[in-house]
Write a structure and sequence with these properties.
With about 375 residues, this protein is an alpha/beta fold. It has helices spanning about 10-30, 35-45, 65-80, 85-95, 95-100, 115-125, 130-140, 195-200, 200-205, 260-265, 285-290, 315-320, 325-335, 345-365, and strands spanning about 145-155, 215-220, 225-240, 240-250, 270-275, 295-300. Strands 1, 2, 3, 4, 5 and 6 form a six-stranded mixed sheet that branches.
């Protein structure tokens, strides 16, 4: 997005942060270290205050704790990678600069852990962090052209009981032999899950994705099988290691089953040219969706479908950009809460991870102009 005089809105935002916001805050609060400056920049870019209208006190009962301050605190939790809400509260109590940046002047103003939990539950139910992330992308990258969208999924370990597997329907054994002339023709086979997704919109496809906690397994880089209990986070990443959209599913769901709704979500936020994915996404329906969106699909060939098909030299060069997805997944796990999922239920887990992706997106956008 550009300003009326043709300047980049993102560059103007960064200049305003550097030239007057940070100096004004240091005059008021004191010297800010690099992490505090990063937190200020992320909050300014994400602008959570624009999404607080629904949480305003309307005069009924006791005035609630400041939801904007609580939202900033959860952003701080992702920036500092606090493992638990108790660690976050402890950090707010012992770091006056962080406490005041969130909006609490005195130590006694910091709410209790129960208040933090209630506020997070409300944010999760309203998909607030996901909406802030979407607005961030559309505001600061919506009018730009992304060369590549790298698609991948990552394991999310959860501390909750896996849901019971649904019972499979008993198979009907067909009578062998040729069908008689007076016997009716068998019904046509049901369309596959991917075919049904092609015929539906984003909302319908999202509603059809299972999100219950489940067990799953995969091969690691050493070729050994690892199992985990929890979820999968499916992320689309564009050039510059910027995550633009994400969907949470059960861990047992195959990566390819989320590719089409994820592509639909990303297409509503950014304009891109190439879709990059590994062999797990090698399906004609996924390639068809890329073609419908006007993209070129560069998907590694699955050797289980016959002889391995190698990329052309030009495709091989572009496919190297897919490492952006792995870097974002690693960044989320190592620095922004991906390894510290303490909440339970897909709605809260998705909100927790969305705060981390929001911080990563803001950080990476600023790196493009600094």
């Amino acid at each position: 997005m550009t300003t009326p005089d043709g300047r980049s809105a993102l560059g103007g935002l960064w200049n305003s942060i550097q030239t007057w916001l940070l100096p004004a805050l240091e005059d008021e609060i004191g010297a800010l270290d690099e992490r505090h400056r990063q937190f200020v920049a992320v909050c300014e870019m994400c602008a959570p205050q624009k999404h607080m209208r629904a949480y305003r006190w309307i005069g009924n009962g006791c005035p609630p704790s400041d939801r904007l301050a609580l939202c900033k605190a959860f952003i701080a939790k992702a920036v500092w990678d606090f493992a638990t809400t108790r660690d976050l509260i402890d950090g707010l109590r012992h770091r006056p600069a962080l406490r005041r940046l969130c909006g609490w002047e005195s130590l006694g103003d910091v709410p209790s852990e129960a208040t933090f939990s209630r506020a997070f539950d409300a944010f999760a139910q309203d998909v607030l962090p996901q909406r802030i992330h979407e607005a961030l992308i559309q505001t600061h990258y919506g009018d730009k052209l992304a060369g590549h969208v790298s698609r991948d999924a990552t394991a999310i370990h959860a501390r909750e009981k896996a849901a019971d597997k649904p019972k499979k329907e008993a198979k009907v054994h067909k009578k062998r032999g040729r069908r008689s002339k007076d016997q009716p023709s068998p019904p046509p086979p049901n369309p596959s899950h991917l075919n049904r997704q092609l015929a539906r919109g984003l909302d319908e496809n999202l509603a059809d994705i299972p999100t219950a906690c489940a067990w799953s397994c995969k091969k690691n880089s050493q070729g050994k099988v690892e199992s985990w209990r929890g979820y999968k986070l499916h992320v689309d990443t564009i050039d510059g290691d910027i995550p633009v959209s994400a969907i949470l599913s059960s861990a047992s769901l195959h990566d390819s089953q989320v590719a089409i709704p994820l592509a639909q979500m990303t297409a509503s936020r950014v304009t891109s040219l190439y879709d990059l994915a590994d062999a797990a996404y090698d399906a004609k329906e996924i390639r068809e969706m890329s073609a419908r969106l006007g993209h070129v699909a560069i998907i590694d060939h699955n050797p289980r479908r016959g002889e391995k098909r190698e990329f052309s030299p030009a495709e091989a060069v572009r496919y190297r950009e897919r490492s952006a997805a792995e870097r974002v997944n690693s960044h989320l796990h190592d620095e922004h809460g991906g390894r510290h999922v303490r909440v339970r239920g897909a709605i809260k887990v998705s909100a927790h991870l969305a705060f981390g992706l929001m911080v990563i997106a803001a950080e990476q956008m600023f790196k493009l102009i600094v």
